[in-house]
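Repro:
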Amino acid sequence: MDAPTLNAGGNIDDLAERLRVAFGEEIVSLVKDRAEITLRVAPQHWQSSALRLRDDPQFGFSQMLDLCGVDYLQYGEGAWQGPRFAVVAHLLSLTNNWRLRLRTFCDDDGIPLVHTLLPVWPSAGWYEREAFDLFGILFDGHPDLRRILTDYGFVGHPFRRDFPISGSVEMRYDPELRRVIYQPVSIEPREVTPRVIREENYARGPGKNG
């Protein structure tokens, strides 16, 4: 059986081999799964790898479709032993009609930091602001790294796995001060557990006596 094809320009094994030759020891891991490739590089090679993937004609990844942060805290029910925060970029080569997932992990869990990809793909600007806002990941060299989805006075990063479900602060309008103020959240947190195990006769149609 032939290898799964990505396009007329080459198959997934061809792209994987090109990546192995071009990046060599800079590759932390290269995973092929379900006709997709994930290339992981060390954070110090994050920006230079992106630049090579864009400019090397054998790759031609001219577009970055998406960039996001990932929090691996408690991943695999605690089995994960690696760094906590990752940054993932999804790339598209229009020339070769290839897609690639580029990933790196931040060295410091306390202050997660990687270089910005803004000089490589201008579309990275807002995506990196989103990753900063939701995960607290910093992008060295980003000229305008500030919140983009939450309010500027928001406390914390709501996509972190240890962020409380009910949040940490709430805001309301104070009629005496005539402005919006922040205060500690007053909602009692409660856990909503889906009812997976149903009663024996739950949702059954009417029986012979019904």
